[in-house]
Amino acid sequence: MPLNDDQSSDSDSSRLSESTVSSSDTEYSRQSFNSDSSSKPSSPASASPPKVITFDELMAATRNLSNWTLAHEIAVNANFCIKQEDYPQNSFAGTVKQIVHKAFWDHLESELNEDPPEYKHAIKLFEEIKEILLSFLTPGANRIHNQICEVLDTDLIRQQAEHNAVDIPGLANYVINTMGKLCAPIRDNDIKQLKATDNIVELLRQIFRVLDLMKVDMANYTIKSLRPYLWHNLVDYERTKFQEILEETPSALNLTTEWIKESIEDELSSISDESSSCPGADSSSKPIISPTLVLNNGYLKLLQWDYCKTIPETLITDEVRLQELREKLNQLKVIACVSLITNNMVGAAVVDVPDFTDHLKRISLPLLEGMNKKSFDLKEALNAIGIQICSIVNKSLSERGLPTLSEEMQSNLMGQIAHIVEKNNPVCSLIDKRIQLFMRSLLALPSFQKCMPTMPGGLSVIQREIEFLGSQYASIVNFNKKVYGPFYANILRKLLFPEAAMEKTEAETSSN
């Protein structure tokens, strides 16, 4: 955003945090931070009563949560920006707003048309415009700051109004020229339209409209300026903020603990199954579980997470991204299943179809859009995909002078594709295991940017897409480990080595 020449490049972020914090509070608050966090469960080793969280402490935790989630979103989401949103057309709130605004501007017009004119409300508008213009300036823009204060000096304007000597059009013209100096290039057409407006009341109304747009532009410019700094300091910032939330809300790791506990139980069950299948295995020895493996298994479960449930607290900031990854992976899984079934049943017919894989993805992805919604009919979508595949194959066979697929073959192919929707479908289970294997291998790599793990069989049709999603997934996981590693380590220590954790607690208690 180009500012006046004498302005510095530093951006004031305080206005941004004040304007966005209120909308973030509701969006990011979760059950584990409010409904169950009013008291701290008493320790088994202590007879002291639970700590009661006061309202002020709860609000402090909410503010920390808002700042934490906002900073994370700005840093990791390159497309994050503030958008101006209005009420839906013909909505009750939109209608009320329109009526109130019209009443205000009609009243202002009647005041200015009086003889002599009444300038009380007009002066208040210029006072508000002055404050908005000043808010756009960065520290060091002294010349334009002094000029705005001098021209829009409301005390002087009131004195002029008392003598009916105030020049409202002249003041409005100065405001427009100043807005033209401060606005982003995208607002140049809006400024031209303001200069072409003759009616003073309509002009003032449009000035406030454009000023609102400039506020959004300024907020987004500030976000863009903050992003490199936030990214550089994000790990320490998020860890510190989460620690503050934990101090204010002691139960803020309950869901995370349960998530890790479930992963440990899954790993123990897997080890038990392996031991039972090996007659010579020593079942009396205590199984050794890798904390890294437990954590990675927990992350893998997020790709199949039911997002109607509350996600672990340490992953709230990436919940939307993880949910989108899960939805895209589910789409790719269906495409891989359809491709495997088609190749197994009519492979000879499609082997010479030009770009059959691309055709399959082009027809499937639109039909599978929104497949994770409860209202989505997957069976109907699969039937439509089956019809399209039969059509493509038959067209290719006809063009090459070969007999098309028989009615029975088409029916069998469409039936097999439609069966993907069934629970425990063998093809679907196979593809799902191979996707999980790829993602597990990806998390085990020291650096996934340098090389990708070998793509399991059956996934070549979606290799490019799954490698791209895998990179996004691994980035989220690796960053999450950096931030919350110390918290995970404490939880794993208590769950995997309870004796050592108890001894440490007793030692700290006795020393105190």
What does this entry look like structurally?
- This protein is mainly α.
- 68% of the residues lie in helices and 0% in strands.
- Helix 3 (55-76) packs across helix 10 (200-248) and helix 11 (254-277) packs across helix 18.
- The longest helix is centred in the middle third of the chain and has 49 residues, at 200-248.
- The model is unreliable at 1-55 (pLDDT under 50).
Note the main attributes of this structure.
about 500 residues, mainly alpha, 19 helices, about 0% strand, extended
Topology:
Elements lengths: L13 H15 L2 H4 L20 H22 L15 H21 L7 H16 L6 H10 L2 H9 L5 H15 L5 H8 L4 H49 L5 H24 L13 H11 L17 H32 L5 H12 L10 H22 L7 H12 L7 H19 L18 H34 L1 H14 L1
Helix pairs in contact: 1-3, 3-10, 5-8, 5-10, 8-9, 8-10, 10-18, 11-12, 11-18, 13-14, 13-15, 13-16, 13-17, 13-18, 14-15, 15-16, 17-18, 18-19
Write the H/E string, N to C: HHHHHHHHHHHHHHHHHHH
Shape descriptor reads: extended
Low-confidence stretches: 1-55
Task: Give the tally of β-strands.
Answer: 0
> What is the end-to-end distance?
57 Å
Helix % is: 55-70%
Quaternary: single chain
**In percent, how much strand structure appears in the residues?**
under 5%
**Biggest pleated-sheet summary:** none
Radius of gyration: 32 Å
Secondary-structure-derived class: mainly alpha
Mean pLDDT: 79
The number of distinct helices, counting runs of at least 4 residues, comes to 19
